[in-house]
């Protein structure tokens, strides 16, 4: 059985003050003259609550200074803002702190709500399928109006090959669809046509 902790009130106060001044726990232990292991053991006892209470006692005058707007309140506010970033910092800093932490959001819904969501999703899926089908039919109409399919069959490749040889590397599609002219090309053509007229 481990022996009971014997720690003086002076050491407890030193730890509380060091923690208030934003020292790490290992630094606070060093300043109080105890080992980190001893501090870890203290954290398992009621003495840790005493340390936290003393730490808040150190903090109280600084909070009063801020609330009263006393001279030099900005330094106290700066210190507390860094110690309690999730409570006292600017909203954008708080947002960054919460966004950087990992969250696991789980939504629990009733069976009735799940059925309603499923019916909405099926309606949306049907609308999406309808849009995709209309895009496909418009695409098919465009390719039909621009000529045959650019992917030629085997018979087309053999007739288009060079010197009558059936070489797959030298074969090219017989009919390429017409490329849509760019806006710049259309503008040039319009400019050239207007110059011819005038």
The topology string of helices and strands comes to HHHHHHHHHH
By secondary-structure content and strand pairing, the structural class works out as mainly alpha
Which bin fits the share of residues in helices?
A: 55-70%
Number of strands: 0
Mean pLDDT: 76
Question: What amount of the residues lies in strands?
Answer: under 5%
Shape: elongated
Number of helices: 10
| Unreliable spans | 152-169
State the end-to-end distance.
108 Å
User: Over the alpha carbons, how many angstroms does the gyration radius reach?
Assistant: 39 Å
Describe what this molecule looks like in 3D:
The chain is an all-alpha fold and 198 residues long. Among the domains are: 9-94, no CATH class; 147-178, no CATH class. The chain is 66% helix and 0% strand. It contains ten helices and no strands. The protein has helices at residues 9-20, 25-32, 36-42, 47-68, 73-83, 85-88, 91-100, 111-145, 154-160, 183-197. Helix 4 (47-68) crosses helix 5. The termini are far apart.
Key attributes of the depicted protein:
single chain; 198 residues; mainly alpha; 10 helices; 66% helix
Question: What topology does this entry show?
Answer:
Elements: H1 9-20, H2 25-32, H3 36-42, H4 47-68, H5 73-83, H6 85-88, H7 91-100, H8 111-145, H9 154-160, H10 183-197
Helix pairs in contact: 1-2, 1-4, 4-5
């Amino acid at each position: 059985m481990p022996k009971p902790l014997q720690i003086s009130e002076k050491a407890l106060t030193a730890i509380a003050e060091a923690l208030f001044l934003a020292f790490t726990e290992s630094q606070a232990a060093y300043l109080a003259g105890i080992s980190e292991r001893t501090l870890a053991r203290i954290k398992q006892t009621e003495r840790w609550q005493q340390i936290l209470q003393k730490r808040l006692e150190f903090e109280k005058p600084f909070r009063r200074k801020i609330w009263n707007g006393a001279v030099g309140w900005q330094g106290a506010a700066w210190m507390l803002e860094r110690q309690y970033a999730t409570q006292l910092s600017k909203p954008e800093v708080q947002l960054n702190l919460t966004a950087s932490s990992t969250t696991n959001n789980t939504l629990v819904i009733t069976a009735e709500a799940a059925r309603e969501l499923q019916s909405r999703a099926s309606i949306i899926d049907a609308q999406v399928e309808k849009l995709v089908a209309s895009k496909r039919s418009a695409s098919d109409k465009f390719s039909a109006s621009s000529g045959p399919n650019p992917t030629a069959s085997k018979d087309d490749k053999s007739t288009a090959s060079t010197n009558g040889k059936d070489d797959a590397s030298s074969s090219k599609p017989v009919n390429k669809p017409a490329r849509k002219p760019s806006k710049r090309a259309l503008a040039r053509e319009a400019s050239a046509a207007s110059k011819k007229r005038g």
